[in-house]
Write a structure and sequence with these properties.
The complex is a heterodimer of chains A (868) and B (127). Chain A folds into six domains: 153 residues, Four Helix Bundle (Hemerythrin (Met), subunit A), CATH 1.20.120; 54 residues, Helix Hairpins (Orthogonal Bundle), CATH 1.10.287; 182 residues, Heat Shock Protein 90 (2-Layer Sandwich); 131 residues, CheA-289, Domain 4 (OB fold (Dihydrolipoamide Acetyltransferase, E2P), Beta Barrel); 134 residues, OB fold (Dihydrolipoamide Acetyltransferase, E2P), CATH 2.40.50; 127 residues, Rossmann fold, CATH 3.40.50. In chain A, the strands form seven sheets. A six-stranded mixed sheet of chain A has the order 10-14-15-13-12-11. In chain A, strands 27-19-20-30-29-28 form a six-stranded mixed sheet. Chain A is an alpha+beta fold. Chain A is built from 28 helices and 35 strands. About 12% of the residues of chain A have low confidence. In chain B, helix 3 runs parallel beside helix 4. Chain B is globular. By secondary structure, chain B is α/β, with parallel strands linked by helices. Chain B has a single domain, classed as Rossmann fold (3-Layer(aba) Sandwich), CATH 3.40.50. Helices cover 45% and strands 19% of the residues of chain B. In chain B, strands 2-1-3-4-5 form a five-stranded parallel sheet, sandwiched between helices. The N terminus of chain B is likely disordered. Classes of the chains: A alpha+beta (868), B alpha/beta (127). The interface between A and B is medium-sized, with 34 and 33 residues.
Chain lengths: 868, 127
């Protein structure tokens, strides 16, 4: 391509970028004279220059646009949004032609008559057509003017070509102002590659020198090292560009979107001067554009909606960029409606990305992150703006590809903020060198959060000394680190490396890494130093192994792999499930689901919190020390007109405390026919949370059902029936003694260990003789074996045969056909109950409503007695 | 050819477009001129203060300091000597009249080619 044309393209593209910004600015402040004259000058320059190159189409359009601007400048024409739009269409057309010019070296064919007519109409003060002129892309139906007038081409042809060049490239007499020169990008790329190699060689030399004491090389080597570092920094600087370059197109984009969507949007930019590597800049341009597009389209409301919500009509999109460590943080924030959690949940279900039960266990923040999943778009109608087949998943993938992370924060009614963290450069990164087995690996520093030395699973002695230790939940190793459970993966195990025998120590090194929005601990054998490493792409043969993001050469010449924590998390299947364990569920009410129950968290001796289902607790009390009396060696308190026994959960009552926190359990004593209550004394009441309850049974400690992860912490779940029995054992014994008649025989069918263990002791304490089965099938086998019961209590939701099927089978005939059968269910709704009774259940009670169950049993058994 | 005689002459090309400056440079250097460039009036003035050129090819519409402003400053500071050829795309004669009134010797319309440019330069006695 003629270098004059190349110059023209560079110059015109710069002008066009500036024009977009200036026109949007003019629309906001129509009487901004400097902006107006800038716009005029830029269009004028484009028009003036294209004459030299013989570009009639460009000249034609630019001339028409300039005519409009002359009128505006002279005050004949007022600045209107429609007018600006028409001029912007003109600018767009110029861009199209320039783009075509860049590809083919000549103006693309096209018809500009409509556009030029619109511009002329505008200039003459006639109403401009509201609709955009048809795009010029299709081949021109109208004869195109001859491409190059001979007259205009002449100077180029006549010019002496190469001879003039050296003088041109470095004009010695050039004025001092603005000393910049243009250098091809490939030259900079080559420089960067060379510097990378130099850094490697330097590292190698340093390594060699370290092994040779007092060689004459050490001083010059030091100098070489410093110079190399300076050179590296200098070359990096040549590649740095302000992020504002990637933002230039956004004001225009936002302006057009606002018009298209009938919204009012203000775009605010902070930190546009923040610099980053141009390669990175190129790669984040599209993701950024998409995020802004998303904010404008999905995030911000219409002016009417905003008014109704008591917000200013003009929505705001804020871009913010700043440096932090070796990274750049970019925020894209809007003050719109926030992410629609319900719609996301619904979409997740219809797309099958998660089950209802899984969703129920997730926090809003976790649900929000589904928008990063492939094929996800919540817009009810796919709009022209966002529905372009590019989702946030692509944004996330692109950002992760350059070693960055993306996360979001969203609050209903307040807006959404996307947080992007990316490295300043891709070529040379700071990395932590670790060892697993006999191999060394590099972990990019950007993803390293902290290093932890933790006691191993077997190292019980060490566990007492260190704050953190490795535990197992469902067979998965986790690290209890401060208030979080962190999933762990052993690098040696994952890569099936030969374990170094010396590495099997009581404590282990854990590299805590950031994987997307969650954390992952990587267990390694040794941690070395951080090093500046030169990233080399992975050989194609290894590229499908996503655990590696590249490789590098260390100072000693060895080639090592660079780990990608994202890939490791995926390889270990952790990415999706981790945060559920590690995150604290906020105490919010969600739709009733049997999987989630409200738990009361409290402390009572020991370090880990304890929990009890809230529905079992009648009341929370704070009782003064003075009110507590001792009766028959047991602490009691006068409570609501009678004596309530108090049971300290930790074993002893701390008499030094002014007040005692007490959980009151209320119960109906069947045999004495009156209410009884008991107070469980605890140290401190912590919180009420809603969470799914999955109890790992321990059974080795009396009074504890086992351990569960509640709100992200390992929590002891107490067995209320046990404590109730403790407090009221005299009554219990009395009941057993006085009950001369045969105790009623109950069959409990319940698949959940937790509920079985909750029910059986409670019912036993009431004087029933209880047999428990974990499935309907087993219960039916008992029937076949001829075992008899007085009543059956059955869960509804069970695998294989559910409660409804079970009761239908019973009612169909056999020895148990006439037995009272009480349904236990987490879902108590009118419809459910009707369905239950229709299937043959005698009664239908909620799972935690023990009083109702006991009342129901009493009634059923009474009726059964009457009937017989 | 008058090439040898013109060898020492310098021309200051003042235009905010790199393309226009390059076109002018090719034509003028091909005809024995030494060419200096300035991207606006202010740069041009600095350049003149460093060393006065033999002639100036001056654009009108430029950032920072436009052609007319430069022309006024040039004439005020250095008097009537280096001849100035005023260059514009404006068809309105008012700009040209203004430039002539401020001390420009000739005017030329964009786009120009070597024939037109050299013709104008000849008219002001530069060739």
């Amino acid at each position: 391509m003629d270098d004059l044309l190349a110059d023209f393209l560079t110059e015109t593209n710069e002008s066009l970028a500036e024009l977009d910004l200036a026109l949007v600015r003019l629309e906001r402040t129509p009487d901004d004279a400097p902006t107006l004259s800038l716009i005029f000058r830029l269009v004028h320059t484009i028009k003036g220059t294209c004459g030299f190159l013989g570009l009639p189409r460009l000249e034609h359009v630019a001339h028409a646009a300039e005519n409009v601007l002359v009128k505006v400048r002279d005050g004949v024409l007022a600045v209107t949004p429609d007018g600006i739009s028409t001029v912007l269409f003109g600018i767009d057309r110029i861009k199209e032609i320039v783009a075509g010019l860049a590809v083919s070296g000549s103006e693309p064919a096209g018809d500009d008559t409509t556009l030029v007519a619109a511009l002329n109409a505008l200039a003459e003060g006639r109403a401009a057509p509201a609709a955009p002129p048809t795009p010029a892309a299709p081949p021109a139906p109208v004869p195109v003017p001859p491409p190059v007038p001979a007259q205009a081409a002449a100077p180029i042809a006549a010019a002496p070509e190469p001879a003039a060049e050296p003088a041109d490239a470095a004009p010695a007499e050039a004025p001092v102002a603005g000393q910049t020169i243009r250098v091809g990008v490939d030259v900079l790329e080559d420089l960067m590659t060379l510097v990378s190699e130099l850094v490697l060689t330097r590292n190698q030399l340093l390594q060699l020198a370290r092994n040779q004491e007092d060689s004459g090389f050490s001083v010059p080597l030091q100098r070489l090292s410093h110079i190399t570092s300076d050179l590296q920094e200098g070359v990096m600087k040549t590649r740095m560009q302000p992020i504002g370059n990637a933002w230039n197109k956004l004001p225009r984009l936002v302006r057009d979107l606002a018009r298209e969507l009938d919204k009012r949007i203000e775009l605010v930019q902070h930190g546009a001067e923040t610099e980053l590597d141009r390669q990175v800049l190129e790669l984040i341009k599209d993701p950024l554009t998409h995020m802004v597009r998303n904010s404008a389209d999905h995030g911000l409301e219409t002016p009417a909606e905003r008014r109704a919500a008591g917000k200013p009509e003009t929505g705001r999109i804020t871009l913010n960029a700043f440096h932090e460590g070796g990274h750049i943080i970019i925020e894209v924030a809007d003050d719109g409606r926030g992410l629609p959690v319900d719609r996301i949940r619904a979409k997740v279900l219809t797309r099958g990305l998660a089950t209802e039960a899984e969703l129920a266990g997730m926090t809003d923040a976790q649900v929000h992150r589904f928008i990063f999943r492939a094929g996800f778009s919540t817009a009810a109608v796919v709009t022209a703006v966002s529905g372009r087949g590019v989702g946030m998943d692509v944004v996330k993938t692109n950002i992760e590809r350059i070693g960055g992370t993306i996360d979001l924060k969203s609050a209903a009614g307040q807006g959404t903020t996307f947080l992007v963290k990316i490295p300043l450069t891709l070529a040379i990164v700071s990395a932590l060198i670790v060892q697993a087995g006999r191999e060394r690996f590099a972990i990019p520093q950007i993803s390293v959060v902290e290093l932890v030395r933790a006691a191993g699973i077997g190292g019980a002695a060490a566990a007492d000394r260190t704050e953190s230790r490795i535990e197992r939940i469902n067979g998965t190793p986790v690290l209890r680190l401060r208030d979080r459970l962190l999933p762990l993966v052993s690098l040696a195990g994952l890569l099936r490396l030969e374990q170094d025998t010396g590495a099997q120590e009581a404590s282990q090194c854990i590299v805590v890494t950031q994987v997307g929005a969650s954390m992952l601990g990587i267990i390694v054998d040794r941690v070395f130093d951080t090093e500046e490493i030169v990233v080399k792409p992975v050989a194609p043969i290894l590229r499908h192994i996503t655990m590696f993001s590249g490789n590098t050469i260390l100072g000693d010449g060895s080639v090592i792999m660079i780990l990608d924590p994202n890939g490791i998390a995926r390889a270990n299947g952790i990415a999706g499930s981790e945060s559920r364990v590690a995150e604290t569920a906020p105490p919010t009410t969600v739709a009733q689901s049997e999987q989630r129950i409200a738990m009361l968290l409290f402390r009572a001796g020991g370090s880990s919190p304890k929990a009890v289902p809230l529905s079992l607790v009648a009341r929370l009390e704070d009782i003064e020390r003075d009110r507590i009396e001792i009766s028959a060696g047991q602490p009691v308190v006068q409570y609501r007109g009678r004596l309530m026994p108090l049971v300290p959960l930790s074993g002893t009552l701390d008499t030094a405390k002014e007040r005692q926190a007490v959980l009151v359990f209320n119960d109906v004593d069947q045999r004495l026919g009156r209410d009884r209550c008991m107070g469980l004394v605890v140290d401190e009441i912590l919180d009420v949370v809603e969470d799914r309850l999955k109890v790992e049974l321990s059974g080795d400690r009396p009074g504890l059902l086992g351990t569960a992860v509640v709100a992200g912490r390992a929590t002891d779940v107490i067995d209320t029936a046990y404590w109730l029995t403790q407090a009221t054992q005299d009554w219990f014994r009395a009941g057993q003694k006085s009950g001369g008649a045969r105790a009623p025989q109950l069959l409990v069918v319940e698949d959940s260990d937790f509920f079985r263990n909750l029910l059986v002791p409670a019912l036993s304490a009431e004087g029933y003789e209880v047999t428990a089965c974990d499935s309907a099938g087993r219960a039916l086998r008992l029937r076949e074996a001829g075992v008899t019961f007085d009543a059956v209590v059955s869960d509804i939701e069970m695998p294989e045969m559910d409660g409804l099927q079970f009761v239908r089978t019973l009612r169909a005939g056999g020895a148990w056909a006439g037995l009272p059968v009480i349904a236990l269910s987490g879902r108590v709704s009118a419809a459910e109950m009707a369905a239950g009774r229709g299937a043959g259940f005698t009664d239908y009670v909620g799972k935690f409503d023990r009083a109702a169950l006991l009342a129901s049993l009493r009634q059923c058994l009474g009726e059964a007695v009457h009937a017989s | 050819m008058a090439l040898a005689a013109n060898r020492a002459r310098t021309c200051l090309v003042v235009d905010d477009s790199r393309v226009v400056r390059k076109v002018a440079r090719r034509i003028l250097e091909g005809n024995g001129f030494a060419v200096r460039e300035a991207a606006d009036g202010s740069e041009a003035l600095t350049s003149c203060r460093a060393s006065l050129p033999d002639c100036v090819l001056l654009d009108w519409n430029m950032p920072v300091m436009n052609g007319i402003e430069f022309l006024k400053a040039l004439r005020q500071e250095f008097g009537p000597s280096p001849p100035v050829v005023f260059c514009t795309t404006e068809t309105e004669m008012s700009f040209v009249e203004q430039a002539i009134a401020c001390g420009a010797q000739e005017f030329i319309m964009k786009p120009f080619d070597d024939e037109i440019l050299l013709g104008k330069f000849g008219q002001v006695g530069l060739l």
